[in-house]
Structure formats: C-alpha cells, structure tokens
Specification:
This protein is 33% helix and 25% strand. It has 224 residues and is an alpha/beta fold. The strands form two sheets. Strands 3-8-7-4-5-6 form a six-stranded mixed β-sheet, with helices on both faces. It has a five-stranded parallel β-sheet with strand order 2-1-9-10-11.
Length: 224
C-alpha cells in the first residue's frame, strides 16, 4: 500500500518510518509547514504547562531551560517529547482536547495558579474556554503556526492507495487544493473531527482511527 503522509516535517518522517515497519510504502506529501513565532516563554507563577503538540514542546524547549513545572499533554507522543526534553512530571490524556481538559480538571486546582498552554496559532477545540468555565486561568502562548500549502506537493502525482490525515487543517487544505484522484483513494483520519474535514472531498472510503493515536490510525488503515 502506498500512503501519502500529509503532516508537517519532521513528524512526517517518523510516521513514514512506522509505515515502513508495517510493510506499507510512505510517500511524503506535507500539506503544512511549521513556522516558529516569537512568544513569551516565562512560566513564573504557573502551576502547570499544557502541550497539545510535539511542536509546542520543541518550541518551548528551545526558548526556555525551565523544566520543573508539571506538564499535561493531549497524547502519548507529546508526553514522550516532553520527557525527552527533560520534564520529569508529565501526564498524558491519551486522547483529544476534551480528554486533556478533563485531565486538567482532575489533576489541577484553580486556586493554585495559572496554566500556561504552549501551542500553535490554529487549535482544535476550546481548551481555554472549557477550563475557564471551571475557574482556571489559562494563558495561551502561540509558539508556532502551521502554514497551509498553496499548491499540492509533486508527490501527489505518484500512484497512491491512501492519504493519511493527522489534522483537520491538512484535510481542509487537500480539499481546497482540488483533492485530485480522491474518489479512488482511502482517506485515513485520526479522529472524527479530522474525518469531517476530509469529507469535504469525495473519497473511495473514509477510515477513522478508533482512538486519536497514530498507532490506532495506522492499524485502522492497514486493516482496510
């Protein structure tokens, strides 16, 4: 199976390695480019840091040497990146933004200080709003922007069997750029929200991961 990997580099390369290990042929076709943005990296007075992507972890780690703050992450891959960056107290929601909000409400106390969320310019869900409704003060720091491609990568001209989507923005970008040959391809989506964006194009079939994790996504795709 030849699978287009649409996520931004360098994460796309790690996904490609996992596909090869599973016997598929990855085709790098990034539809997003990560561009850093200047941000306030001070976490004085914060009771916890929240990361919703490995890009956020990487941006903070490059901007600050602070590693003593507890960290909450949306998923296990982001948690692993935080540990690799030197954080010791790391907890993963192993799910979506709503699961991360639930974890924060269980693990943190609104009276013990603000929460700092290091993330991108485009977010899925309303994490700050959900936590704010429960009395938490959340400071959002925009550390990067995922910029959508203005043209499809040349790799989409090669024969493909499936297109892998890790984000709604990538799926929306593919649809906006014409979704070539989509009617003959599988769209493999990491969540229902991503699948909703992918369905703006007509596909042979849309596959949704049973859990919002890459291992579940790849397993669902390769089961067909």
């Amino acid at each position: 199976m030849r699978v287009a990997v649409t996520r931004a580099l360098p994460e796309a390369e790690r996904t490609a390695e996992r596909l090869r290990a599973l016997g598929a042929t990855p085709v790098l076709a990034p539809l997003l480019t990560i561009e850093p943005r200047p941000f306030d990296a001070s976490i004085e007075g914060a009771q916890a840091l929240i990361f919703t992507s490995t890009n956020g972890v990487r941006a903070f780690a490059e901007a600050s040497a602070a590693r003593g703050c507890p960290v909450l992450t949306v998923g296990d891959a982001t948690a692993a990146a935080a540990r690799e960056a030197g954080f010791a107290d790391v907890r993963s929601a192993d799910g979506a933004v709503s699961d991360l909000a639930a974890l924060a409400k269980r693990a943190l106390d609104p009276a013990k200080g603000k929460i700092v969320h290091i993330g991108g310019a485009h977010l899925a869900g309303d994490l700050a709003g959900e936590l704010g409704a429960h009395g938490f003060a959340v400071e959002r720091r925009i550390a990067y922007e995922a910029v959508a491609a203005r043209a499809l990568p040349d790799s989409f001209a090669t024969p493909l069997d499936a297109v892998l989507f890790h984000s709604a923005r990538a799926a929306e970008t593919f649809a906006a750029l014409g979704a070539p040959q989509a009617q003959g391809l599988l769209a493999a989506c990491i969540s229902d929200a991503v699948a909703g964006a992918a369905r703006k194009a007509a596909w042979k079939r849309v596959i949704v991961a049973p859990a919002p994790r890459e291992d579940a996504l790849l397993a669902a795709l390769l089961r067909g």
